[in-house]
Amino acid sequence: MTGALDNPIVLVHGLFGFQRIGLGSWTLTHYFRGIADALRAQGNRVYAPALSPVGKVENRAGQLLEFLKATVQDEPVHLFSHSMGGLDSRYLITRLEEHRRVLTLTTLGTPHRGTVIADSGVGLIPGWRWVRYSLRKVGFHPETIEEMTREAMVRFNEATPDSPEVRYWSVAGDFLPQWKSRLALWPHRFLTMPLLQTHEGPNDGLVSVASARWGEAEETWKGDHFNLVNWNVFKDDPEGIHQDRVNDYLRMVGSLKKLGY
Q1: Is the pLDDT of residue 27 over 50?
Q2: Residues paired with 47 in a beta bridge
Q3: Which of 157, 149, 179, 142 is nearest to 56 (CA)?
Q4: DSSP codes joined into one string, 232-250
Q5: Which residues, at least 6 apart from 20, have a Cβ–Cβ distance to it below 8 Å?
Q6: Rounded Cα gap, residues 32 and 68, in angstroms
Q7: Which end of the chain has less Cβ packing within 10 Å, N or C?
Q8: d(Cα 83, Cα 15) in Å, to the nearest integer?
Q9: What is the distance between the terminal CA atoms of the chain, rounded to a whole angstrom?
Q10: 9-113+154-175+210-258 domain in CATH 3.40.50.1820?
Q11: Is the pLDDT of residue 208 over 50?
Q12: Model's pTM, two decimal places?
């Protein structure tokens, strides 16, 4: 038993994410699959906002702020943020000047330095202007893709320096599949991974290790982008990289506890 942290934990989902999938009070699954229950079993208070699944970083950060005000009021929290959720969290801390609301931020698979996938979407898709127009018609903000290009993230990082009052950690995923029969199940494995491997090196299928590393302590897990939030878990796995991540989260929270949180 790791013991409970003194302050709440907030799990922040990424692009196209969700708080939970269910009907009424019945829940089929959560975005951070099995993580909240495991942390609560240790006595932690755990919350998870439902941000706009297709919103811009600025808008999602504002939604995160409103969620914190409504759930924990002024109590500072520990953020565990996946993918784009890490950018939302950094924006909240620095650009919205809400550093006093956050004790620590741990990002998982966050494209802190952008991704060549966004570069390719913006620069290589024929008729991007038409695509932008079409995306807006269905409620998706094309700027969401544009702001995760490597060039845009240079500007984001310049405008969003880390707060000295918040401690930052990160987790990256390193995934190189050998089990060919499962490639077809996950398009990011054969569509995006070769592109990332060529231009950015080791990656989780959507974000490179180099882009995901951030803060004073950096971990790299053997797993793909979704395994970082405990999806794609297989008991009989010849690749050995589809692990259940519950114990990793418990370990990270235990490390925070040892630091006095």
Answers
A1: no
A2: 10
A3: 142
A4: S--SS-TTS-----HHHHH
A5: 27, 28, 29, 30, 31, 48, 50
A6: 18
A7: N
A8: 7
A9: 15
A10: yes
A11: yes
A12: 0.86
Q: Is the predicted pLDDT of residue 150 greater than 50, yes or no?
A: yes
Instruction: State both tokens at 74.
Output: 């002024």
Q: What is the pLDDT of residues 86-143, one digit of tens each?
A: 999 999 999 999 999 999 999 999 999 999 888 876 545 444 455 555 555 545 555 7
DSSP codes joined into one string, the chain: -----SS-EEEE--TT--SEEEETTEEEEESSTTHHHHHHHTT--EE-----TT--HHHHHHHHHHHHHHHTTT--EEEEEETHHHHHHHHHHHTS--GGGEEEEEEES--TT--HHHHHHHHHSTTHHHHHHHHHHTT--THHHHTTSHHHHHHHHHHSPPPTTSEEEEEEEE-----GGGGGG-GGGTTTHHHHHHHT-SBSSSSBHHHH--SSEEEEEES-TTGGGT-S--SS-TTS-----HHHHHHHHHHHHHTT-
**Structural domain boundaries in the chain:** 9-113+154-175+210-258
> Residue 184's pLDDT is what?
42
